[in-house]
Amino acid sequence: MPISEFDLIRQYFADATASRHDVLLGIGDDCALLQPPAGAALAVSMDTLVEGRHFLPGSDPESLGHKALAVNLSDLAAMGADPAWATLALTLPGADTAWLGAFMRGFAALAAEYGVQLVGGDTTRGPLSITVQVHGFVDPDSALKRGGGKAGDLLFLSGSIGDAGLALLRAQGAAPSDAEDGHLRERLDRPIPRVTLGRLLAGRASAAIDVSDGLIADLEHVCTASVTGARVNLSSLPLSPAVATECARGNWQPALSGGDDYELLFSISPERVESLLSICLEAGQQIKEIGCLVADSGIVLVYPDGRPSEEIPHGFDHFRT
Q1: Which of 47, 66, 210, 273 fits as disulfide partner to 78, beta carbons 3.0 to 4.6 Å?
Q2: Contact predicate 191/106, CB 8 Å
Q3: Strand, coil or helix: what is 132?
Q4: 270-281 tens-digit pLDDT
């Protein structure tokens, strides 16, 4: 007998994640009933992943489950929020229980790491598409935003950038492969949401964003919201050996506009830097200064040879790319 939509819900979703005390009613009714803590602002974000657009056909379902939740948790991290709840809408070509079981293993493992409960969603039939909505809590006076930066603030970046973009180029045959492929593909398929760092930045950083569409594209968002420009020292970018090699060849595209990094880009006033560096060191969070916000509009890239350039690459845009 074919498995029904409601069988899928009971078998794969209802008990996929651990329960939270602030979920009064979860999966199984017309709505979830949720209880935010008193005084906290509710941070909400949603992302959709479409096969052939956001991930390659035939991608590992367990990694997809991880990534579908991770990219949303990254948005909460960029606001300095604590993750709490998630909803999941899946459009599936068919009721492939092996695929769905693997997908939910990846999703549930990451949910357990960050204390997220799946509280509802929807399943339907059609071309493979995954939509996740996440909810988190943040002190409204400490929430990170894109528009708080000021000229003179220093720019910092977490982790490293360009790995996911280079992995995609190699997977598409647009760049030669080498021994670094495994590490790069892991960065593309299983990004790490910088939730811990986001919590540390809340109330300290002046502006923040997660790098999802490419470093320069997302920096432009911060500059637009903060009414500033920026100067970026390319020699200071945190790069893996593989991406650094590409840059040394003159190919800066993965580092500057590759996207899918899900690192945090943030600005902070100079007088707060020493304290933040100490806090991040103690917490094991890797950050690196890459430039500053400036009063003049526009972004200036300073290449390792000292050459400045206002020609900047475009990042990912659904309707331009």
Answers
A1: 210
A2: no
A3: strand
A4: 999 999 999 999
